[in-house]
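User: quick one, sequence for these tokens?
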């Protein structure tokens, strides 16, 4: 499947993407994970992105499009992909449209994960992320077996630098201003489905039920 997952930070895009990779071998592509990897490795990209990320601001479109042009042409994307956290702006969506047309790829749909703001705030402040494999935990609803250690890969599980209250509030404002307009963009393209995303299991089932073919 070839999907875009839209939704505010904390709407469950990463969790749903990970669940969907098991359905048909489509790969999760999270620009946030790619950027965090670059920051941890101290690459040029990571150095350019870090200050934007820590403040909860968006990384400039040209850096993101550079990443995605390469990533979408890698062999593992042939089975399909789940775009998690990309596109985030109208210019990114336009650039993605041109890129997919050039590569001869058609999107199945864009999924809008809708979650009430108070649920989002609660999820983000209690979320913990593995620094190794990106697995997502929650101190209340899905704790690690051993505190601070990933069940899957054994790496450290931490609160992200951009999950302070200030950065979270900025990320939600940035989402409303820059990313929420993509919902109408994909609705006009005839690609959008809206899903009440309080339960990830329900989201995954609804996506499976709506896949074309
Ligand atoms: P995420 O893990 O998707 O919440 O992304 C974490 C941070 O990475 C965001 O707050 C942005 O600073 C940056 N980022 C991730 N994806 C994008 C994107 N498509 N465009 C711009 N910045 C991004």
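Assistant:
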């Amino acid at each position: 499947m070839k999907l875009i997952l839209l939704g505010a930070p904390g709407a469950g895009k990463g969790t749903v993407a990970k669940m969907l990779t098991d359905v048909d071998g489509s790969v999760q592509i999270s620009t946030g994970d790619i950027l965090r990897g670059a920051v941890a490795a101290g690459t040029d990209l990571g150095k350019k992105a870090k200050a934007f990320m820590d403040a909860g601001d968006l990384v400039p479109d040209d850096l993101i499009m550079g990443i995605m042009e390469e990533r979408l042409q890698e062999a593992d994307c042939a089975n399909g992909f789940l775009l998690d956290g990309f596109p985030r702006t109208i210019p990114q969506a336009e650039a993605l449209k041109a890129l997919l047309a050039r590569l001869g790829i058609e999107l199945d749909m864009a999924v809008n994960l809708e979650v009430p703001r108070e649920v989002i705030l609660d999820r983000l402040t209690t979320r913990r992320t593995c620094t190794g494999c990106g697995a997502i935990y929650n101190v209340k609803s899905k704790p690690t077996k051993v505190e601070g250690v990933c069940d899957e890969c054994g790496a450290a599980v931490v609160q992200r630098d951009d999950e302070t209250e200030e950065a979270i509030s900025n990320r939600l404002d940035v989402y409303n201003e820059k990313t929420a307009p993509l919902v109408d963009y994909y609705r006009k393209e005839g690609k959008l489905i809206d899903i009440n995303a309080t339960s990830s299991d329900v989201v995954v089932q609804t996506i499976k039920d709506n896949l074309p073919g």
